[in-house]
Amino acid sequence: MSEASPTAPAPFAAGKIRFPALDGCRALAAVGVLITHVALLSGFSNRSTTLGPYLARMDVGVSVFFVLSGFLLYRPFVAARFAGQPAGEVGAYARRRLLRIIPAYWVALTVVGFVLKAPGFVEPHSIVSHYLLLQIYDSTQLVGGPIQQAWSLATEVAFYVFVPCWAWVMSRRQRGAAQQLRLEVIALVALFVASALGNVGLIKIGVAGSTFAQLGTWLPFRIGDFIPGMLLAVGSAWVSHNKIRLAAWLSSAQVALALWLLAVGVFWFVSTQLGLPMFPIFTPTQAYVVRVLYLLFATLLVIPAVLARSEKGFVTKTAANPLAIWLGLVSYGIYIWHEAWQDIYLRITDQPALNTSFLNMLAFTAVLTLISATISWYLIEKPAIRWGSRHRGTIPQLTVASPPSEATPTRP
Length: 412
Hints:
By secondary structure, the protein is mainly α.
């Protein structure tokens, strides 16, 4: 990383670091997942040869959430390590993570499964497994259930457990900051390669598509989706620790636009050039190629948001506008509620799945989802987060434009 002129403000100043543009990434991911599910369930993706292929691939938001989690969760640990400070209490970290996802998820699961029955619990989808987010470890429960998209929450929870364990391994010996930086980068790259080889190995031995899909939800085969965010966390923490003034052009509008245009190019390629089926029922090779390209898109999207300065600039004005910040706050609610309202729409209109109006379903789903997400945020998520913050115990902290929404769990 190069240095800028002495007058250039550092995007990673010491102390509390703000990354307001990450809210826009989170909002885009949440809205994209909602749209792709409406497009698929309404049948629009199959009916439209122009927009359909693009709408079918907006589940790229899953990878965006994984990259965000890798960055937001790992940065405080590595920043503390560079500063020679203790990593904080694991109990406090675990409490905050659980309070961030479990109360709202349990309420939604209960309402959707037992009240709305949109859908309800149907065997072999175990109630216990879904409440404990263990469904990804049983092939009979991976698909289905009241909140089908919760598979990604289960993957996220596994990452929550992994982060402090990895941080502990990385801090077993005292090293100089430069040595620690090299170790962090080498170890994360090695972990990425090992996970990639594991996925390629599954393809080479000819596992069935359903088996590959299930194993793709398990952290050892999915950890690669978090590692770009973790590497960004290492770089960000290193710059902050050394008070390096990055070259001003790195956070310029031109660089941000170039990276985002590259992301658009990747999205165009995966949507139109691979001959993929509209529904994400892929062969193992297709599934892994899509995952890698999704990860590339997500990384290109997030980098400008990480580089953006806290003050007003192109990226901040674009990705941290009031609407993006609000959508980022309620993005978790958008995730856990939207598929239920699609099911309700089909029920009250008495129309078949795959053959209904895309725009009507989208309007109905968006309105009811935003209402549900807003209620979830103000009545469940925000109070739980505040309670967890007041509870005794300390962990390394990283602030963003809206701290309570950091590391919102991912979407399918």
